[in-house]
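Bench log, entry 3. Co-assembly request; chain sequences pasted below exactly as received.
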Amino acid sequence: MLSLQHISKYFQVGGNKNIILNDLSLDIDEGEFISIMGPSGSGKSTLLNIIGMLDEPSDGYHYFEGHAVHQLKEKQRSALYKQYIGFVFQAYHLIDELTVYENIETPLIYQDFKSAERKAMVADMLDRFNIVGKKDLFPAQLSGGQQQLVGIARALIAKPKLLLADEPTGNLNSKQGEEIMELFRKLNKEDGVTIIQVTHSEKNAEYGSRIIDLLDGKIDSSRKL
Amino acid sequence: MIRNYIKIALRNLWRHRGFSFINITGLSIGITACFFIFIYVAFELSYDNFHTKADRIYRLVTDIKTPSETINTSSTSWAFAPNIRADLPEVEAFVRTSGGSFLVRRGDVKFQEENSMFADSTFFKVFDFKLVKGDPRTVLTAPATIVFTESTAKKYFGSADPIGKTVLITGDAVPATVTGVMKDFPGNSQIKADMIISMTSLTQKFNKGIDGQWGNFGATTYLLLKPGTSPKAVEAKMPAFLQNRDGDGMKKSQMFYRLMLEPLKYTYLYSKRGGQEVGSISNVYIFSIVAIFILLIACINFVNLTTARSVERAKEVGIRKVVGAEKSQLAGQFIGESVVLCIIAFLLTLGIAALLLPAFNQLAGKTVSSGIFSNWYYVVILFVTSICIGLLAGLYPALVLSSFKPVMVLKGRFSGSRKGGILRKTLVVAQFSISIALIIGTIVVYNQMSFMQNRDLGFNKEQMLVLNTNSDPAKESLKNAISSIPGVVSTASASSIPGGGNNGAYSEIENKMGDLQIANLDLYFVDYDYVNQFKIKMVAGRSFSREFGTDTAQAMLINEAAVKLFGYSSPKDAIGRRFKQWGREGKIVGVMKDFHFRSLQEVIKPLTMRIELHSLDLITVKVSPKNLNSTLAQIEGKWKQFIPNRPYSFYFLDEFFDRQYRSEQRFGKLFFNFAVLAIFISCLGLLGLASYSTLQRTREIGIRKVLGASVPGIVNLLSFDFLKLILISCIIAMPVGWYFMHQWLKDFAYRIDVQWWVFVLAGVLAVLVAVATISFQAIKAALSNPVKSLRSE
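Structure output for the full assembly:
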């Protein structure tokens, strides 16, 4: 599905080159559920952002579904991204001014779905996540777990093939975390969504089909479960 | 998508009520101020534009060249127009008008119609004034026929039909027939009157043959040129026309005329020759600039507050980009929000404008607009302007916001860009520079006003009331009767008083070389007591005196300006010199110290005074301040006893004189109001920015407090940044303010110097207001508990 080849990412700070990713190569197949682990500063989030096209590598080649991402223009990349990728964050990142319903609807608006279609899709999603009763509430009125559910619902609404999650359970208690992980597993198994998550928790990592350990911007180990 | 944007916009506005309030209020006030200025300027520019033939109507004006000077006047001789019409085929028609004051009576109803006008029968053909009753072709044809305006007709006839009825005009009770009733003159007409009398009444009845006297000026002449005629071509034919018709006359009187055409549409704003009502194109410019400034200040607020808040919106931008928004879509959203805000401001503006319109009309001194919806296109313009402001002011913040990188704003701390900070500072400096310049302007205008009102005019105008007898034969006996009232200190009669009009007389006066020099001189007819009554000082010779029997016909007083005109180095040298004026000959007996017989905008001109007892229509009465009411009642009693035919009225000289400054006072008031608005809007913006920057520095303040910073220290820290900007603004505003006010003052012959303290005062005012605005926020932040602010991180 995607392939990273000799990806590097560095910043120039003063006279020093601050290397975050160092000549990293990685292939991911459709249907995989990958957990990326590693100590703070090992480049996990940066890697995820590059995969998600939110960030650009300083060097290297990036292929996604047969497109050479490193050669695409901003607009084309955005179109590709819109079509294939959903993002989930540790801090949920819902829009505070919008209700649950509207938050979930937002991606559809940017993909030019008709109003009636949007209604049906959002209703479906609310139903699936059991949050129909909460649809008119604002994010601030929800618990962390519920907010993350909304965040995931929003990430999935446009039916992406790839779900990227940056420490999705980092702000949740263990029970809520487990529920989210179960949901991910179900999505991966039943809906065939490819998932890449960044996590600190060994336990959560084990929900995945492959664990990649990063250290100092390089892949330290890759184990299939 | 649009609905989604609007929803977000409204929710955002509501969530940040404080900011929205500041933003919308500032914008509404700005737009309201602009709107008022706009309708005022539009009104000024609309003068005389409503005539369908306006493009072909010209005012005939004259330059009169005498040996001593050239007089530029809007006045013409009654003889010019009929002869021009006869000689020049390019002229389709002419209308002469001349003002007058008429006693009008119908039964017991009597009024002195001060604002009357003679006009030719072509009046309703050339101009677009509308007759409600009567035939426009014939109403003003016969002598002693009258057209009333609707409101004047109502005074005499109530709801009855006045057509064909007779009223008595002048003290001689001449019967005149009402032949027409017209709509009241529109506010934006330079030509205005309460009643019109046929010109033939003047030329065939009251002043027979006046239209044969080429040198007798006093008519205003309008020419209607045939379509396609160039006014220049007509002007070019004037010298030959004058030479042909009045060449000998001009040579004999040594007064040479030059005739020119002024387009009717431009006379109100551009002509320097005066007229019934005079506008000022420079005031139009000044106010237009002020309007643009105020709008600019309001827009700057808008941009500043929005970009300052961008940090808060950054997260939303990041999220939207992550879920698939493109830059253009986001920019659209933010511009949309600012348009929504502007529409709210527009609605608010409609309310404020409707509410304040009567007050504004009063301030402007005329009915600029009778209702904001009376000209629907004003509202449309207002709406379009609001939308445009929304688009323009929203553009920059939208571009800044929509270009945020999601990775930057979603991860870690994000702080506003440095560049944005500099831009905001520049804009604040621009705002305050404008505000301070306006404050400087206001102070200077007020100084000049009070200077004019308090300056020693060289004569006494206190406790003096003036009665106009309009040449009633009983005026002499009335004056004597009034003199005997106990509360009356003294009386004097004259043809003219300072601040009012006076005759200009063709005069010949002996100059330094001993020749009789021709000049057109201002002339007052007075009685023996006038000089004393007004406490006018004599610098040489003597005043008029009853001891000299010849004073009634052969004596003249001149002022120092006249002494200079005729070349004498000292007033004493002028005494005993010969004069010829309006059929009288004699000697100069005294020289008066110059006094301001016109407004302080004008240099004191040469003035002559003579005794001409039958020409003294005005009775000036010096009254004692004690028992003033009883004195006034007794004066009224005497009037009713001696001149029962005429309605009684009087005015106080000091008020009458100050009336000359009405338009300047109005200008000052308008200017003051708009300056206050400008600084208010600027401060609103400053308040918003200060509270925002304080909010952003909450963490810094917390850390500083933990490290031991004192409250005043923190207040200083927060205020200093802004104060620096205000000081820079002062430095920019001062030369600009000085330059513009220097230009403005040039219009006044007697004026103040712009003093250094004006700038200091303006600067101090601005700093005080700014400090008050900022320190409130700063103190609040400095007093807050650091534990709280640090925990919130």
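The two ends of chain A are 20 Å apart (CA to CA). Residues 2-224 of chain A form a domain with the Rossmann fold fold (CATH 3.40.50.300).
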